Automatic annotation (TrEMBL):
PROSITE patterns (UniProt xref): RIESKE (PS51296)
Protein source organism: Paraburkholderia phytofirmans OLGA172
Name of the protein: 3-phenylpropionate dioxygenase
Keywords: 2Fe-2S, Dioxygenase, Iron, Iron-sulfur, Metal-binding, Oxidoreductase
Oxidoreductase keyword on record: yes
Molecular functions (GO terms): 2 iron, 2 sulfur cluster binding; dioxygenase activity; metal ion binding
Domain of life of the source: Bacteria
Domain Rieske residues, every copy: 27-130
Pfam families named among the record's database cross-references: Rieske, VanA_C
Biased composition (Low complexity): 349-365
InterPro entries xref list: Cholesterol_7-desaturase, Rieske_2Fe-2S, Rieske_2Fe-2S_sf, VanA_C_cat
Length: 365
């Protein structure tokens, strides 16, 4: 079985090695919209070095952060609108990865060549999303986001943080509602409810729901994982009326791989409010709630960053972990399917190459 990367994996479990680097063939948020303005921005996601820039019309473009000439970082260069210019020798590359100009050489053969990988880009809810397709999935799947991020009846705020842990730890953390009653016991919103609970998993149209049996709207009592061209998590935290209009406080979360040891987390705080209630909630969030929510997020970060990189190899799981283990199994199944799709893709490419070689041989006979 071959690996989704061109480099052969020496690890005993190539599936887990692939998962550790980051599961491809999904859309991921990679940066808040405000981060990409005039100058090119260099980032690393799923181990890929990427340059982002915003053209004159406002559209974000994304390329492999590598000049095809000598390999210099394009993110050190200039934003020319529809293209980016390398600082090293001024070579210009458009948003599709094609070299448009080599100023140091007239009629350079490099001009007109697509030499750099490009990434499909969409921008929603104040964040930039990229498609990370492998060779067998270059055409992006439709990106369908939860209604809380795209519906006009919702207001939301984006919180993004960098965590020094593998992204799978962040997914495990959200898929574990029981930790709220302990880790966040001093929180303004998660101090109530039972310290013991039975848990159950049920399927949804887009993924699965993991919930406490017999307790709802008391604490962090349920979490949903959705798979809609991207992997997102949804949960709700009960709020007292003194915390403003809109009922329960919703969270839509994403865990984004940077590399095997680092990730970014994106958490949109949402509420279904409109008119004056929207204005009241936005004011209250900025002035009273935002700092409290960051405190909760920091509690998660402290614990996850304290765990060893191989902590998953030494676990003793129990009933509360059934949702987490279901998600792990699902992601592993997706990884196995990616391997199979790539093997089939490469077999078709090899067969097509052999047919072309044979046809060329006959034409010269």
């Amino acid at each position: 079985m071959t690996s989704p990367n061109t480099t052969t994996q020496a690890a005993a479990d190539p599936i887990q090695s692939y998962l550790n680097r980051g599961l491809r063939n999904y859309w991921y948020p990679v940066a808040p919209s405000w981060q990409v303005g005039g100058a090119p921005v260099g980032i690393t996601r799923l181990g890929d070095q990427i340059v982002l820039w915003r053209g004159k019309e406002g559209k974000v473009r994304a390329l492999e952060d590598r000049c095809p000439h000598r390999g210099a970082r394009l993110s050190l260069g200039w934003n020319l609108g529809g293209s980016v210019a390398c600082w090293y020798h001024g070579i210009e590359i458009d948003g599709g990865g094609t070299v448009t100009k080599v100023p140091a050489v007239s009629n350079c053969p490099l001009e007109g060549q697509k030499c750099v990988k490009s990434y499909p880009v969409e921008e929603h809810a104040g964040a930039i999303f990229l498609w990370f397709g492998d060779d067998a999935h270059q055409e992006p799947a439709p990106l369908v986001l939860p209604e809380e991020l795209v519906g006009e009846e919702y207001a939301n705020f984006l919180c993004m943080s960098n965590w020094k842990c593998n992204y799978q730890y962040a997914i495990d953390n959200v898929m574990d509602p029981m930790h709220g009653a302990y880790l966040h016991a001093t929180s303004h919103s998660m101090a109530e409810g039972d310290k013991q609970a039975d848990m159950r998993v049920r399927k949804t149209e887009t993924g699965l729901m993991f919930e406490k049996v017999g307790q709802r709207d008391v604490n962090f009592d349920w979490v949903e994982l959705g798979e809609t061209g991207t992997l997102w998590m949804r949960l709700a935290i009960p709020y007292k009326k003194k915390f403003g209009p809109g009922g329960n406080f919703g969270i839509i979360g994403f865990a984004v791989p940077i590399d095997e040891n680092n990730c970014q987390v994106y958490f949109w705080r949402t509420r279904k409010v409109s008119g004056w209630q929207r204005d009241a909630w936005r004011f209250m969030y900025r002035n009273r709630l935002e700092g409290l929510h960051w405190d909760v997020l920091e509690q998660d970060r402290y614990v996850l960053e304290s765990m060893a990189p191989n902590a998953r190899n030494h676990e003793f799981l129990y009933q509360h972990d059934v949702g987490m283990t279901r998600v792990r199994r699902m992601l592993r199944q997706r990884a196995q399917q990616h391997f199979a799709d790539l093997d089939a893709h490469r077999a078709r490419a090899a067969q097509a190459g052999s047919a072309q070689t044979e046809a060329a041989g006959h034409s010269h006979a």
